[in-house]
Fold each of these.
Amino acid sequence: MFLDQLLKTTILFISFALFITSCGQQQHTTPGVTSSTPVLVDHAPQMFTDRCGNCHHLNENTAAPMLTEVYARWQNDTAKVISFIKNPEKVIRESAKDAYPTKLFKKWYQANMPAFGWLSDSEIVVMLNYANMGGK
Ligand code: HEC
């Protein structure tokens, strides 16, 4: 009887431990990133600093707009932001005069952000998620 009880308690404990572990893993899941790209998420801060940090700060407008909460400014259209990063000039050129990319371009003194067409979508998304959350 006692052994039976002990076994049940052990099984319960193990299931609970597994549950907690899986919750922990979920926290690291980033939207738009597949399970085959977990390493990229860890590299996000460094990639952001190396490639974007010269112009963009997270919480302060500098030579370029701050990127915290940038998704909201693009109505959460991640695909659009990705195409902008890959080719800003094209997205601005193809936007209507009163559309957000055109306004953004004017607001930033018609500065040309360089095109990052060589980056993969996953690389862009992990950097953007990192920046969007203010570096958290
Ligand atoms: C040489 C400076 C420079 C670099 C490097 C740069 N950007 Fe930009 N970025 C800009 C400027 C300037 C703008 C404002 C729009 C414009 O004028 O093209 C901008 C705009 C943006 C926007 C839109 C911001 C908003 O408020 O809607 C995003 C998103 C963005 N950049 C992401 C990135 C990412 C990600 C990287 C790195 C891969 C990067 N940028 C690298 C200069 C830069």
Amino acid sequence: MTAVTPTTSDDEPILSLRGISKKFGAIQALSDVSLDIYPGEVVAIVGDNGAGKSTLVKVLAGVHPASSGTICYRGDEVSLANPTDARDLGIATVFQDLALCDNLDVVSNLFLGRELGAGALNEVEMEQQTWALLRQLSAKIPSVRTPVAGLSGGQRQTVAIARSLIGNPSIVVLDEPTAALGVAQTAEVLNLIEHLRERRHGIVLVSHNMADVQAVADRVVVLRLGRNNGDFAAADVTYEDIIAAITGATDNAVSRRAGMTGATLTRAKEGLSS
Ligand SMILES: Nc1ncnc2c1ncn2[C@@H]1O[C@H](COP(=O)(O)OP(=O)(O)OP(=O)(O)O)[C@@H](O)[C@H]1O
Ligand SMILES: [Mg+2]
């Protein structure tokens, strides 16, 4: 197995998943999956369609409790039986559809369901906290009183991420945060992820985009057919290593590729002899 040393001085993971399996009827979406999440580290989850990435996100979010396996939070075994369990533990998830209310402004979206003020809403305080959060993220939102329908894709993603930070979670899980974004907006979201890392959140980034993964990830965890198929320190892994683990060119690429270079691998995939 590729030895992975956390990139931070904290040796204790915030969250450790071991032997996680999830069945949907006859479909085995996850089998014996392990994952560690460290503070101040971006761990990318990559894999082909159907590899189990979103299912793993939903296990972390308490949306789909695992069928078996153990989850430890700072060393203590916990249960993520529902979204409230996850939120109470400090695991915030930004799902791909963002779930923003288009007709509401930024402040209302951030505080939806947990408005400040008893009886009368404390709009001033909520607005101040919204600006404070956006400033911390160096986010570029022109006004917090415009309906989010009028914001760009990147700004909407920013609002969804800012919303997830209310309550100061220890872990932020982002499912394909740049999938629908252009180049400049993607750069903004990647900057934002770096801000989250500086603030010592543990970040889980699910992405199909290898450029994004290589730009911000500290560690890359590969899922293939619902199983772990690689856990790499981002600094040491090549694009070809990751693709080989995703496609199964190196089955159980948890062990290093047997001396295959990127070029020979490409030739092998194209059916060329060397
Ligand atoms: N609610 C569900 N009910 C039944 N099967 C499901 C459910 N959710 C996921 N699956 C199945 O579990 C497997 C893993 O799906 P999952 O959505 O986790 O993959 P993914 O890696 O996120 O793929 P993609 O890249 O396409 O988003 C697939 O075979 C999928 O059909
Ligand atoms: Mg998915």
